[in-house]
Batch of 2 targets.
Target 1
Amino acid sequence: MKQSFNPLNQEILVSIGGDLLPRAEAKVSVFDSLVQGGDGCWEGLRLYKGRIFKLSEHLERLRHSALAMGFDSIPSAEAMRAEIQRTLEANHMSDGVHIRLTLSRGIKITSGMDPRLNQEGPLLIVLAEHKTPVYSKGGLTLSTSSLRRFPPDCLDPKIHHNNLLQSIMAKIEANASGADDAILLDMSGFVAETNATNLFLVADNQVHTPRTVACPEGITRATVLELCQTHQIPFQVRDISLAEFHRGDEVFCTGTMGEIAAVTIIDGRQIGNGEVGPLTRQMADLYETCTREGGEPVLS
Protein backbone atom coordinates (compact mmCIF):
# COMPACT_ATOMS: atom_id res chain seq x y z
CA MET A 1 0.00 0.00 0.00
CA LYS A 2 1.75 3.14 -1.22
CA GLN A 3 -0.74 5.54 0.36
CA SER A 4 0.03 6.79 3.85
CA PHE A 5 -0.94 9.69 6.07
CA ASN A 6 0.58 12.99 5.01
CA PRO A 7 1.12 15.35 7.97
CA LEU A 8 0.36 18.27 5.63
CA ASN A 9 -3.26 17.06 5.66
CA GLN A 10 -3.63 17.22 9.45
CA GLU A 11 -5.08 20.74 9.46
CA ILE A 12 -6.92 20.80 6.11
CA LEU A 13 -10.31 22.45 5.73
CA VAL A 14 -13.06 20.45 4.05
CA SER A 15 -16.06 22.01 2.32
CA ILE A 16 -19.33 20.35 3.31
CA GLY A 17 -22.49 22.01 2.07
CA GLY A 18 -20.61 25.30 1.67
CA ASP A 19 -19.13 25.28 5.18
CA LEU A 20 -15.34 25.04 5.50
CA LEU A 21 -14.66 22.74 8.44
CA PRO A 22 -11.41 21.48 10.02
CA ARG A 23 -10.63 17.85 9.23
CA ALA A 24 -11.63 16.67 12.73
CA GLU A 25 -15.03 18.36 12.42
CA ALA A 26 -15.76 17.48 8.79
CA LYS A 27 -18.68 15.09 9.14
CA VAL A 28 -22.02 14.28 7.53
CA SER A 29 -25.28 13.36 9.25
CA VAL A 30 -26.19 9.74 9.95
CA PHE A 31 -29.31 10.59 7.92
CA ASP A 32 -27.26 11.57 4.87
CA SER A 33 -27.78 9.40 1.81
CA LEU A 34 -24.07 8.57 1.66
CA VAL A 35 -24.33 6.93 5.08
CA GLN A 36 -27.73 5.39 4.45
CA GLY A 37 -26.89 3.66 1.17
CA GLY A 38 -23.87 5.06 -0.65
CA ASP A 39 -26.38 7.21 -2.53
CA GLY A 40 -24.21 9.79 -4.23
CA CYS A 41 -21.78 10.32 -7.06
CA TRP A 42 -18.18 11.47 -7.09
CA GLU A 43 -15.18 12.53 -9.13
CA GLY A 44 -11.45 12.46 -8.49
CA LEU A 45 -9.60 15.59 -9.64
CA ARG A 46 -5.91 16.45 -9.66
CA LEU A 47 -4.38 19.89 -9.29
CA TYR A 48 -1.20 20.63 -11.24
CA LYS A 49 0.40 24.04 -10.60
CA GLY A 50 -2.88 25.86 -10.13
CA ARG A 51 -4.73 23.96 -12.87
CA ILE A 52 -7.13 21.03 -12.67
CA PHE A 53 -6.71 18.62 -15.54
CA LYS A 54 -9.91 17.90 -17.51
CA LEU A 55 -12.06 19.74 -14.96
CA SER A 56 -14.93 20.37 -17.38
CA GLU A 57 -15.05 16.69 -18.33
CA HIS A 58 -15.12 15.63 -14.68
CA LEU A 59 -17.90 18.06 -13.79
CA GLU A 60 -19.92 16.91 -16.80
CA ARG A 61 -19.51 13.26 -15.80
CA LEU A 62 -20.67 14.14 -12.28
CA ARG A 63 -23.73 15.86 -13.72
CA HIS A 64 -24.47 12.85 -15.96
CA SER A 65 -24.26 10.51 -12.97
CA ALA A 66 -26.57 12.70 -10.90
CA LEU A 67 -29.07 12.89 -13.77
CA ALA A 68 -29.03 9.11 -14.19
CA MET A 69 -29.63 8.72 -10.44
CA GLY A 70 -32.62 11.05 -10.59
CA PHE A 71 -31.33 13.88 -8.41
CA ASP A 72 -33.98 16.60 -8.07
CA SER A 73 -31.38 19.35 -8.35
CA ILE A 74 -27.71 19.53 -9.29
CA PRO A 75 -25.30 22.38 -8.52
CA SER A 76 -24.16 24.20 -11.63
CA ALA A 77 -20.66 23.66 -12.96
CA GLU A 78 -19.90 27.29 -12.11
CA ALA A 79 -21.00 26.79 -8.48
CA MET A 80 -18.87 23.66 -8.13
CA ARG A 81 -15.85 25.39 -9.68
CA ALA A 82 -16.25 28.26 -7.22
CA GLU A 83 -16.42 25.92 -4.23
CA ILE A 84 -13.37 23.99 -5.41
CA GLN A 85 -11.45 27.26 -5.77
CA ARG A 86 -12.57 28.48 -2.34
CA THR A 87 -11.46 25.22 -0.71
CA LEU A 88 -8.06 25.22 -2.41
CA GLU A 89 -7.38 28.84 -1.53
CA ALA A 90 -8.46 28.32 2.08
CA ASN A 91 -5.93 25.49 2.30
CA HIS A 92 -3.20 27.42 0.46
CA MET A 93 -2.95 24.59 -2.07
CA SER A 94 -1.52 25.08 -5.55
CA ASP A 95 0.13 21.82 -6.68
CA GLY A 96 0.35 18.10 -5.92
CA VAL A 97 -3.24 17.95 -4.71
CA HIS A 98 -5.95 15.33 -5.16
CA ILE A 99 -9.56 16.45 -4.81
CA ARG A 100 -12.42 14.12 -3.99
CA LEU A 101 -15.58 15.87 -5.21
CA THR A 102 -18.74 14.21 -3.89
CA LEU A 103 -22.39 14.99 -4.48
CA SER A 104 -24.76 13.28 -2.04
CA ARG A 105 -28.51 13.15 -2.55
CA GLY A 106 -28.57 14.83 0.85
CA ILE A 107 -30.15 14.38 4.26
CA LYS A 108 -33.28 12.28 4.74
CA ILE A 109 -36.16 13.22 7.04
CA THR A 110 -36.06 9.64 8.38
CA SER A 111 -34.04 6.52 7.68
CA GLY A 112 -35.02 4.69 4.51
CA MET A 113 -34.20 4.08 0.85
CA ASP A 114 -36.95 6.16 -0.76
CA PRO A 115 -35.44 9.27 -2.44
CA ARG A 116 -38.65 11.14 -1.59
CA LEU A 117 -37.31 11.21 1.98
CA ASN A 118 -34.60 13.58 0.73
CA GLN A 119 -36.22 16.99 1.01
CA GLU A 120 -33.29 19.36 1.55
CA GLY A 121 -31.52 18.98 -1.79
CA PRO A 122 -28.08 17.60 -2.58
CA LEU A 123 -24.95 18.05 -0.48
CA LEU A 124 -21.65 18.96 -2.15
CA ILE A 125 -18.40 17.88 -0.48
CA VAL A 126 -14.97 19.12 -1.59
CA LEU A 127 -12.12 17.18 0.03
CA ALA A 128 -8.70 18.39 -1.11
CA GLU A 129 -5.57 16.61 0.12
CA HIS A 130 -1.86 16.91 -0.51
CA LYS A 131 -1.35 13.63 -2.37
CA THR A 132 1.03 12.42 -5.05
CA PRO A 133 -0.02 9.71 -7.55
CA VAL A 134 -0.66 6.53 -5.61
CA TYR A 135 0.85 3.86 -7.87
CA SER A 136 4.47 2.80 -8.20
CA LYS A 137 6.03 3.74 -11.53
CA GLY A 138 8.18 0.61 -11.42
CA GLY A 139 5.40 -1.85 -12.21
CA LEU A 140 2.26 -3.18 -10.55
CA THR A 141 1.13 -6.71 -9.75
CA LEU A 142 -2.48 -7.63 -10.53
CA SER A 143 -4.55 -10.70 -9.70
CA THR A 144 -7.90 -11.67 -11.20
CA SER A 145 -10.86 -11.34 -8.85
CA SER A 146 -13.66 -13.85 -8.45
CA LEU A 147 -16.14 -10.97 -8.73
CA ARG A 148 -17.59 -9.76 -12.03
CA ARG A 149 -18.30 -6.20 -13.13
CA PHE A 150 -21.95 -5.39 -13.62
CA PRO A 151 -23.27 -5.00 -17.18
CA PRO A 152 -25.50 -2.00 -18.01
CA ASP A 153 -28.67 -4.01 -17.40
CA CYS A 154 -27.60 -4.65 -13.78
CA LEU A 155 -25.95 -1.37 -12.77
CA ASP A 156 -24.68 0.83 -15.57
CA PRO A 157 -20.96 1.60 -15.11
CA LYS A 158 -21.56 5.00 -16.70
CA ILE A 159 -22.98 6.04 -13.33
CA HIS A 160 -19.98 7.04 -11.22
CA HIS A 161 -21.66 6.29 -7.89
CA ASN A 162 -20.47 6.04 -4.29
CA ASN A 163 -21.50 2.43 -3.73
CA LEU A 164 -18.04 0.92 -4.17
CA LEU A 165 -18.57 -2.38 -2.34
CA GLN A 166 -17.89 -4.46 -5.45
CA SER A 167 -14.52 -2.75 -5.90
CA ILE A 168 -13.71 -3.00 -2.20
CA MET A 169 -14.42 -6.74 -2.16
CA ALA A 170 -12.17 -7.20 -5.18
CA LYS A 171 -9.44 -5.16 -3.47
CA ILE A 172 -9.71 -7.42 -0.41
CA GLU A 173 -9.03 -10.41 -2.67
CA ALA A 174 -6.04 -8.63 -4.23
CA ASN A 175 -4.65 -7.83 -0.77
CA ALA A 176 -5.02 -11.47 0.26
CA SER A 177 -3.12 -12.63 -2.83
CA GLY A 178 -0.32 -10.10 -2.34
CA ALA A 179 -1.22 -8.14 -5.47
CA ASP A 180 -1.43 -4.36 -5.79
CA ASP A 181 -4.89 -4.41 -7.35
CA ALA A 182 -7.49 -6.75 -8.81
CA ILE A 183 -8.66 -7.35 -12.37
CA LEU A 184 -12.42 -7.72 -12.76
CA LEU A 185 -13.93 -9.49 -15.75
CA ASP A 186 -17.34 -8.75 -17.23
CA MET A 187 -20.21 -11.25 -17.27
CA SER A 188 -18.98 -12.66 -20.60
CA GLY A 189 -15.50 -13.33 -19.23
CA PHE A 190 -13.73 -10.45 -20.95
CA VAL A 191 -11.51 -8.04 -19.00
CA ALA A 192 -13.42 -4.99 -17.76
CA GLU A 193 -10.99 -3.00 -15.56
CA THR A 194 -9.22 -3.15 -12.22
CA ASN A 195 -10.95 -2.32 -8.96
CA ALA A 196 -9.84 1.31 -9.43
CA THR A 197 -8.48 1.92 -12.95
CA ASN A 198 -8.96 1.32 -16.65
CA LEU A 199 -6.64 -1.18 -18.32
CA PHE A 200 -4.63 -1.06 -21.55
CA LEU A 201 -2.78 -3.82 -23.38
CA VAL A 202 0.10 -3.37 -25.84
CA ALA A 203 0.61 -6.09 -28.44
CA ASP A 204 2.62 -5.81 -31.67
CA ASN A 205 3.10 -2.06 -31.09
CA GLN A 206 -0.65 -1.51 -30.98
CA VAL A 207 -2.65 -0.27 -27.98
CA HIS A 208 -5.84 -2.12 -26.99
CA THR A 209 -8.39 -1.35 -24.28
CA PRO A 210 -11.77 -2.87 -23.30
CA ARG A 211 -15.04 -1.35 -24.41
CA THR A 212 -16.99 0.67 -21.82
CA VAL A 213 -19.62 -2.04 -21.43
CA ALA A 214 -18.67 -3.07 -17.90
CA CYS A 215 -16.25 -0.29 -16.97
CA PRO A 216 -16.68 3.46 -16.59
CA GLU A 217 -15.91 6.03 -19.27
CA GLY A 218 -12.58 6.91 -17.71
CA ILE A 219 -11.35 10.43 -18.37
CA THR A 220 -7.69 9.42 -18.23
CA ARG A 221 -8.60 6.48 -20.49
CA ALA A 222 -10.15 8.90 -23.01
CA THR A 223 -7.04 11.09 -22.81
CA VAL A 224 -4.81 8.13 -23.69
CA LEU A 225 -6.97 7.32 -26.72
CA GLU A 226 -6.81 10.97 -27.81
CA LEU A 227 -3.02 10.88 -27.49
CA CYS A 228 -2.87 7.69 -29.57
CA GLN A 229 -4.88 9.37 -32.30
CA THR A 230 -2.84 12.59 -32.19
CA HIS A 231 0.51 10.81 -32.28
CA GLN A 232 -0.54 8.15 -34.81
CA ILE A 233 -0.20 5.25 -32.39
CA PRO A 234 -2.46 2.40 -33.61
CA PHE A 235 -5.19 1.47 -31.13
CA GLN A 236 -8.31 -0.65 -30.82
CA VAL A 237 -11.26 -0.57 -28.43
CA ARG A 238 -12.67 -4.08 -28.23
CA ASP A 239 -13.47 -7.11 -26.06
CA ILE A 240 -10.20 -8.52 -24.70
CA SER A 241 -9.77 -11.86 -22.96
CA LEU A 242 -7.64 -12.41 -19.87
CA ALA A 243 -5.28 -14.67 -21.85
CA GLU A 244 -4.46 -11.74 -24.16
CA PHE A 245 -3.40 -9.70 -21.14
CA HIS A 246 -1.31 -12.59 -19.82
CA ARG A 247 0.64 -12.79 -23.07
CA GLY A 248 0.76 -9.05 -23.80
CA ASP A 249 3.99 -7.21 -24.57
CA GLU A 250 3.04 -4.43 -22.15
CA VAL A 251 0.12 -3.62 -19.85
CA PHE A 252 -0.67 -0.35 -18.11
CA CYS A 253 -3.52 1.12 -16.12
CA THR A 254 -4.91 4.63 -16.09
CA GLY A 255 -6.73 6.87 -13.63
CA THR A 256 -6.65 10.27 -11.99
CA MET A 257 -5.27 8.88 -8.72
CA GLY A 258 -2.39 6.99 -10.32
CA GLU A 259 -2.05 8.66 -13.75
CA ILE A 260 -0.42 6.04 -16.02
CA ALA A 261 1.24 3.07 -14.32
CA ALA A 262 2.82 -0.04 -15.82
CA VAL A 263 1.67 -3.54 -14.89
CA THR A 264 4.48 -6.12 -14.88
CA ILE A 265 2.81 -9.21 -13.34
CA ILE A 266 -0.72 -10.58 -13.77
CA ASP A 267 -1.80 -13.74 -11.96
CA GLY A 268 1.81 -14.72 -11.40
CA ARG A 269 2.70 -14.30 -15.07
CA GLN A 270 5.41 -11.86 -16.09
CA ILE A 271 4.25 -9.32 -18.66
CA GLY A 272 6.77 -8.85 -21.47
CA ASN A 273 10.27 -8.64 -20.03
CA GLY A 274 8.95 -7.71 -16.59
CA GLU A 275 9.91 -4.05 -16.94
CA VAL A 276 8.10 -0.86 -17.89
CA GLY A 277 7.76 -1.06 -21.68
CA PRO A 278 8.67 1.62 -24.23
CA LEU A 279 5.11 2.38 -25.32
CA THR A 280 3.99 2.65 -21.71
CA ARG A 281 6.82 5.12 -21.06
CA GLN A 282 5.86 7.07 -24.17
CA MET A 283 2.23 7.31 -23.08
CA ALA A 284 3.26 8.34 -19.56
CA ASP A 285 5.52 11.08 -20.97
CA LEU A 286 2.80 12.33 -23.31
CA TYR A 287 0.30 12.36 -20.46
CA GLU A 288 2.72 14.27 -18.24
CA THR A 289 3.06 16.89 -20.97
CA CYS A 290 -0.74 17.18 -21.15
CA THR A 291 -1.07 17.75 -17.42
CA ARG A 292 1.82 20.22 -17.39
CA GLU A 293 0.59 22.30 -20.32
CA GLY A 294 -3.16 21.78 -20.11
CA GLY A 295 -5.80 21.98 -17.42
CA GLU A 296 -8.18 24.68 -16.29
CA PRO A 297 -6.89 27.48 -14.02
CA VAL A 298 -8.80 27.47 -10.74
CA LEU A 299 -6.79 29.82 -8.54
CA SER A 300 -7.08 33.59 -8.60
Note: The mean pLDDT is 97.
Target 2
Amino acid sequence: MPDNLIKSSTLADEMRAHMGLFTEKTFDWDAFPASRGFPDLTRAQLRYVGAGGSPKVGDPSTMKAQHFTFSLVNQPVGKFAASHAHEVVEHFFILQGVLTVGTVWGDEVVEVKLGPKDLLLNKSGRPHGFRNDGVEPVLMQITVGSGTPEMPVHVCHPKDKDLELSRRFGAGGPEKIHLFSPESTDRRHQELGKHVVRFRDRKPIWDKAGFARLPYVGEGGAPAAGYRMDMVHLPKGVAVRPFVRDVEDTFFVLEGTITAGWVQDGETVERRLGPRDLLLNPAGRPHYFRNDGVVDATFTMAVGSGQPETVTFEAA
Protein backbone atom coordinates (compact mmCIF):
# COMPACT_ATOMS: atom_id res chain seq x y z
CA MET A 1 0.00 0.00 0.00
CA PRO A 2 1.46 3.44 -0.91
CA ASP A 3 2.79 5.48 1.98
CA ASN A 4 0.33 8.30 1.37
CA LEU A 5 -2.53 5.93 2.23
CA ILE A 6 -1.30 4.99 5.71
CA LYS A 7 0.69 7.94 7.02
CA SER A 8 -0.45 9.74 10.14
CA SER A 9 -2.27 12.98 9.38
CA THR A 10 -5.22 15.07 10.45
CA LEU A 11 -7.35 13.34 7.81
CA ALA A 12 -6.24 9.88 8.97
CA ASP A 13 -6.99 10.78 12.59
CA GLU A 14 -10.41 12.12 11.61
CA MET A 15 -11.21 8.95 9.68
CA ARG A 16 -10.16 6.79 12.62
CA ALA A 17 -12.48 8.81 14.88
CA HIS A 18 -15.37 8.00 12.53
CA MET A 19 -14.84 4.25 12.74
CA GLY A 20 -16.49 1.80 15.11
CA LEU A 21 -14.52 -1.45 15.20
CA PHE A 22 -16.56 -4.32 16.61
CA THR A 23 -13.66 -5.90 18.48
CA GLU A 24 -12.89 -2.60 20.24
CA LYS A 25 -16.42 -2.03 21.53
CA THR A 26 -18.25 -3.40 24.57
CA PHE A 27 -21.91 -4.32 25.00
CA ASP A 28 -23.71 -2.31 27.66
CA TRP A 29 -26.04 -4.49 29.77
CA ASP A 30 -27.45 -1.43 31.55
CA ALA A 31 -28.36 0.66 28.51
CA PHE A 32 -32.10 0.86 29.21
CA PRO A 33 -33.06 2.23 32.65
CA ALA A 34 -36.67 1.05 32.34
CA SER A 35 -35.39 -2.55 32.35
CA ARG A 36 -33.59 -2.30 35.69
CA GLY A 37 -35.00 -4.69 38.26
CA PHE A 38 -36.80 -6.80 35.65
CA PRO A 39 -34.68 -9.84 34.64
CA ASP A 40 -37.17 -10.76 31.90
CA LEU A 41 -36.28 -7.51 30.10
CA THR A 42 -32.53 -8.19 29.98
CA ARG A 43 -30.80 -7.08 26.81
CA ALA A 44 -27.52 -5.37 25.86
CA GLN A 45 -26.71 -2.53 23.50
CA LEU A 46 -23.56 -1.74 21.55
CA ARG A 47 -23.58 1.86 20.29
CA TYR A 48 -21.92 3.04 17.07
CA VAL A 49 -23.74 6.25 16.08
CA GLY A 50 -25.83 8.07 18.69
CA ALA A 51 -27.53 6.46 21.66
CA GLY A 52 -30.56 4.94 19.92
CA GLY A 53 -33.27 4.21 22.49
CA SER A 54 -30.82 4.61 25.37
CA PRO A 55 -30.31 7.88 27.30
CA LYS A 56 -26.52 7.40 27.21
CA VAL A 57 -25.87 10.19 24.71
CA GLY A 58 -22.59 11.04 26.44
CA ASP A 59 -20.87 7.75 25.64
CA PRO A 60 -17.40 8.84 24.38
CA SER A 61 -17.09 5.70 22.24
CA THR A 62 -20.21 6.65 20.27
CA MET A 63 -20.12 8.88 17.22
CA LYS A 64 -22.45 11.87 17.04
CA ALA A 65 -25.67 11.12 15.17
CA GLN A 66 -27.28 13.45 12.65
CA HIS A 67 -30.25 11.99 10.77
CA PHE A 68 -30.21 8.48 12.30
CA THR A 69 -28.68 6.38 15.05
CA PHE A 70 -26.97 3.01 14.64
CA SER A 71 -26.54 0.36 17.35
CA LEU A 72 -26.60 -3.39 17.93
CA VAL A 73 -28.83 -5.08 20.50
CA ASN A 74 -28.34 -8.57 21.92
CA GLN A 75 -31.44 -10.23 23.38
CA PRO A 76 -30.94 -13.54 25.23
CA VAL A 77 -33.28 -16.49 24.78
CA GLY A 78 -36.60 -16.05 26.58
CA LYS A 79 -36.26 -12.31 27.19
CA PHE A 80 -38.53 -9.58 25.85
CA ALA A 81 -38.74 -5.81 25.44
CA ALA A 82 -41.98 -4.29 26.73
CA SER A 83 -44.24 -2.64 24.16
CA HIS A 84 -43.46 1.02 23.57
CA ALA A 85 -43.73 3.72 20.93
CA HIS A 86 -41.31 6.23 19.40
CA GLU A 87 -41.98 9.66 17.91
CA VAL A 88 -39.89 8.64 14.88
CA VAL A 89 -39.42 5.51 12.78
CA GLU A 90 -37.15 2.71 13.94
CA HIS A 91 -35.98 -0.43 12.20
CA PHE A 92 -34.83 -3.86 13.36
CA PHE A 93 -32.40 -5.66 11.03
CA ILE A 94 -31.62 -9.20 12.18
CA LEU A 95 -28.04 -10.44 12.17
CA GLN A 96 -28.53 -13.66 14.19
CA GLY A 97 -31.43 -15.67 15.56
CA VAL A 98 -35.20 -15.29 15.16
CA LEU A 99 -37.00 -12.30 16.67
CA THR A 100 -40.74 -12.07 17.36
CA VAL A 101 -42.05 -8.51 17.05
CA GLY A 102 -45.54 -7.57 18.18
CA THR A 103 -47.30 -4.46 16.84
CA VAL A 104 -50.02 -3.24 19.17
CA TRP A 105 -53.57 -2.28 18.23
CA GLY A 106 -55.44 -1.59 21.47
CA ASP A 107 -55.67 -4.93 23.28
CA GLU A 108 -54.81 -6.90 20.12
CA VAL A 109 -51.36 -7.67 18.73
CA VAL A 110 -50.09 -8.75 15.34
CA GLU A 111 -46.88 -10.76 15.69
CA VAL A 112 -44.27 -11.32 12.98
CA LYS A 113 -41.11 -13.43 13.13
CA LEU A 114 -37.92 -12.07 11.57
CA GLY A 115 -34.92 -14.19 10.60
CA PRO A 116 -31.36 -13.32 9.58
CA LYS A 117 -31.19 -10.37 7.13
CA ASP A 118 -34.92 -9.65 7.53
CA LEU A 119 -35.96 -6.13 8.51
CA LEU A 120 -38.98 -4.48 10.09
CA LEU A 121 -39.47 -0.72 10.00
CA ASN A 122 -41.65 0.38 12.91
CA LYS A 123 -43.90 3.32 12.09
CA SER A 124 -43.66 6.42 14.24
CA GLY A 125 -46.25 6.28 17.02
CA ARG A 126 -47.08 2.58 16.51
CA PRO A 127 -46.53 0.68 19.80
CA HIS A 128 -44.42 -2.44 19.45
CA GLY A 129 -42.39 -4.86 21.53
CA PHE A 130 -40.09 -7.77 20.76
CA ARG A 131 -39.32 -11.18 22.24
CA ASN A 132 -36.84 -13.99 21.73
CA ASP A 133 -38.74 -17.27 21.53
CA GLY A 134 -35.85 -19.00 19.78
CA VAL A 135 -32.98 -21.25 20.84
CA GLU A 136 -30.10 -18.80 20.35
CA PRO A 137 -29.51 -15.16 21.28
CA VAL A 138 -30.85 -12.59 18.85
CA LEU A 139 -28.40 -10.01 17.55
CA MET A 140 -29.94 -7.18 15.60
CA GLN A 141 -29.01 -3.81 14.24
CA ILE A 142 -31.37 -1.02 15.31
CA THR A 143 -31.65 2.40 13.71
CA VAL A 144 -33.85 5.23 15.00
CA GLY A 145 -34.73 7.94 12.49
CA SER A 146 -33.43 10.91 14.45
CA GLY A 147 -30.06 11.95 15.78
CA THR A 148 -31.61 12.81 19.15
CA PRO A 149 -34.71 10.65 19.60
CA GLU A 150 -36.93 11.12 22.63
CA MET A 151 -37.18 8.37 25.21
CA PRO A 152 -39.71 5.65 24.26
CA VAL A 153 -43.19 5.75 25.79
CA HIS A 154 -44.13 2.37 27.28
CA VAL A 155 -47.68 1.13 26.87
CA CYS A 156 -47.45 -2.24 28.69
CA HIS A 157 -44.52 -2.58 31.08
CA PRO A 158 -44.20 -5.06 33.99
CA LYS A 159 -43.64 -2.16 36.38
CA ASP A 160 -47.39 -1.52 36.28
CA LYS A 161 -48.84 -4.48 34.34
CA ASP A 162 -48.93 -8.25 34.84
CA LEU A 163 -45.70 -9.89 33.65
CA GLU A 164 -47.39 -12.32 31.28
CA LEU A 165 -49.58 -9.55 29.87
CA SER A 166 -46.42 -7.53 29.22
CA ARG A 167 -44.79 -10.54 27.57
CA ARG A 168 -47.79 -10.62 25.19
CA PHE A 169 -47.22 -6.88 24.54
CA GLY A 170 -50.63 -6.09 26.04
CA ALA A 171 -52.76 -8.62 24.15
CA GLY A 172 -55.83 -9.43 26.27
CA GLY A 173 -55.31 -13.17 25.80
CA PRO A 174 -53.98 -15.74 23.32
CA GLU A 175 -57.06 -15.17 21.14
CA LYS A 176 -56.03 -11.52 20.81
CA ILE A 177 -52.70 -12.44 19.20
CA HIS A 178 -52.70 -12.68 15.40
CA LEU A 179 -49.82 -14.14 13.40
CA PHE A 180 -48.83 -11.88 10.53
CA SER A 181 -50.15 -12.96 7.16
CA PRO A 182 -49.07 -10.94 4.10
CA GLU A 183 -52.11 -12.27 2.19
CA SER A 184 -54.60 -11.02 4.79
CA THR A 185 -57.11 -8.30 3.88
CA ASP A 186 -57.03 -7.04 7.49
CA ARG A 187 -55.74 -3.45 7.41
CA ARG A 188 -53.35 -4.18 10.29
CA HIS A 189 -51.65 -6.95 8.33
CA GLN A 190 -51.64 -4.81 5.19
CA GLU A 191 -49.94 -1.95 7.03
CA LEU A 192 -47.38 -4.26 8.58
CA GLY A 193 -46.76 -5.90 5.21
CA LYS A 194 -45.47 -2.59 3.82
CA HIS A 195 -42.84 -2.46 6.55
CA VAL A 196 -41.62 -6.09 6.65
CA VAL A 197 -38.66 -6.68 4.33
CA ARG A 198 -37.67 -10.31 3.75
CA PHE A 199 -34.15 -11.08 2.58
CA ARG A 200 -35.45 -13.98 0.50
CA ASP A 201 -37.64 -11.57 -1.49
CA ARG A 202 -34.93 -9.01 -2.27
CA LYS A 203 -34.04 -8.77 -5.95
CA PRO A 204 -30.61 -7.31 -6.65
CA ILE A 205 -30.29 -4.10 -8.62
CA TRP A 206 -26.96 -4.18 -10.42
CA ASP A 207 -25.11 -0.90 -10.72
CA LYS A 208 -22.95 -0.14 -13.76
CA ALA A 209 -20.00 0.20 -11.37
CA GLY A 210 -20.12 -3.56 -10.81
CA PHE A 211 -21.90 -4.05 -7.47
CA ALA A 212 -25.48 -4.95 -6.56
CA ARG A 213 -27.74 -3.30 -4.01
CA LEU A 214 -30.78 -4.74 -2.28
CA PRO A 215 -33.18 -2.01 -1.11
CA TYR A 216 -34.36 -2.31 2.51
CA VAL A 217 -35.50 1.17 3.56
CA GLY A 218 -36.43 3.57 0.79
CA GLU A 219 -37.50 3.11 -2.81
CA GLY A 220 -38.07 -0.63 -3.36
CA GLY A 221 -38.10 -1.41 0.37
CA ALA A 222 -39.94 -0.18 3.46
CA PRO A 223 -41.11 3.47 3.27
CA ALA A 224 -38.31 5.92 3.97
CA ALA A 225 -38.78 8.67 6.53
CA GLY A 226 -35.62 10.68 7.03
CA TYR A 227 -33.09 8.01 6.01
CA ARG A 228 -32.77 4.99 3.75
CA MET A 229 -30.70 1.80 3.75
CA ASP A 230 -29.51 -0.66 1.12
CA MET A 231 -27.59 -3.91 1.43
CA VAL A 232 -24.64 -3.84 -0.96
CA HIS A 233 -23.13 -6.96 -2.51
CA LEU A 234 -19.56 -6.12 -3.57
CA PRO A 235 -17.82 -8.81 -5.64
CA LYS A 236 -14.11 -9.29 -5.03
CA GLY A 237 -12.03 -7.02 -7.22
CA VAL A 238 -14.74 -4.37 -7.64
CA ALA A 239 -14.02 -0.76 -6.67
CA VAL A 240 -15.79 2.59 -7.05
CA ARG A 241 -14.37 6.07 -7.50
CA PRO A 242 -14.74 8.71 -4.76
CA PHE A 243 -18.23 10.17 -4.45
CA VAL A 244 -19.77 12.92 -2.32
CA ARG A 245 -23.13 13.30 -0.59
CA ASP A 246 -24.73 16.31 1.04
CA VAL A 247 -25.72 14.06 3.98
CA GLU A 248 -23.88 11.43 6.01
CA ASP A 249 -23.77 7.73 5.18
CA THR A 250 -22.44 4.61 6.91
CA PHE A 251 -20.77 1.39 5.77
CA PHE A 252 -21.50 -1.55 8.11
CA VAL A 253 -19.87 -4.80 7.06
CA LEU A 254 -21.86 -8.03 7.28
CA GLU A 255 -19.58 -10.46 5.45
CA GLY A 256 -16.08 -10.33 4.02
CA THR A 257 -13.93 -7.21 4.15
CA ILE A 258 -13.97 -3.88 2.35
CA THR A 259 -11.43 -1.11 1.99
CA ALA A 260 -12.89 2.37 2.52
CA GLY A 261 -11.10 5.56 1.59
CA TRP A 262 -11.37 9.30 2.20
CA VAL A 263 -9.97 12.03 -0.05
CA GLN A 264 -9.17 15.63 0.85
CA ASP A 265 -6.85 18.25 -0.67
CA GLY A 266 -4.91 15.69 -2.68
CA GLU A 267 -4.47 13.33 0.28
CA THR A 268 -6.00 9.85 0.44
CA VAL A 269 -6.35 7.66 3.52
CA GLU A 270 -7.76 4.14 3.67
CA ARG A 271 -8.86 1.66 6.33
CA ARG A 272 -9.98 -1.95 6.15
CA LEU A 273 -13.33 -2.92 7.66
CA GLY A 274 -14.29 -6.46 8.68
CA PRO A 275 -17.56 -8.03 9.88
CA ARG A 276 -19.55 -5.71 12.20
CA ASP A 277 -17.14 -2.81 11.71
CA LEU A 278 -18.70 0.54 10.81
CA LEU A 279 -17.50 3.73 9.14
CA LEU A 280 -19.48 6.98 9.37
CA ASN A 281 -18.80 9.20 6.35
CA PRO A 282 -19.64 12.87 7.03
CA ALA A 283 -21.61 15.03 4.60
CA GLY A 284 -19.39 16.62 1.96
CA ARG A 285 -16.51 14.14 2.38
CA PRO A 286 -15.31 12.43 -0.82
CA HIS A 287 -15.19 8.72 -0.02
CA TYR A 288 -15.15 5.37 -1.77
CA PHE A 289 -15.11 1.60 -1.26
CA ARG A 290 -13.58 -1.45 -2.90
CA ASN A 291 -13.18 -5.16 -2.29
CA ASP A 292 -9.58 -6.30 -2.46
CA GLY A 293 -10.28 -9.35 -0.31
CA VAL A 294 -10.45 -13.01 -1.30
CA VAL A 295 -14.27 -13.38 -1.12
CA ASP A 296 -17.26 -11.25 -2.06
CA ALA A 297 -18.28 -8.74 0.60
CA THR A 298 -21.67 -7.60 1.87
CA PHE A 299 -22.35 -4.40 3.78
CA THR A 300 -25.26 -2.12 4.54
CA MET A 301 -25.17 1.49 3.43
CA ALA A 302 -27.44 3.80 5.43
CA VAL A 303 -27.90 7.34 4.08
CA GLY A 304 -29.20 10.36 5.99
CA SER A 305 -31.94 11.15 3.47
CA GLY A 306 -35.15 9.42 2.51
CA GLN A 307 -34.86 10.56 -1.10
CA PRO A 308 -33.90 8.13 -3.90
CA GLU A 309 -30.21 7.68 -4.65
CA THR A 310 -28.59 10.71 -6.31
CA VAL A 311 -25.04 9.38 -6.63
CA THR A 312 -23.88 8.04 -9.99
CA PHE A 313 -21.27 5.46 -9.03
CA GLU A 314 -18.28 4.98 -11.31
CA ALA A 315 -15.99 1.96 -11.44
CA ALA A 316 -12.42 2.68 -10.35
Note: The chain is about 5% helix and 35% strand.
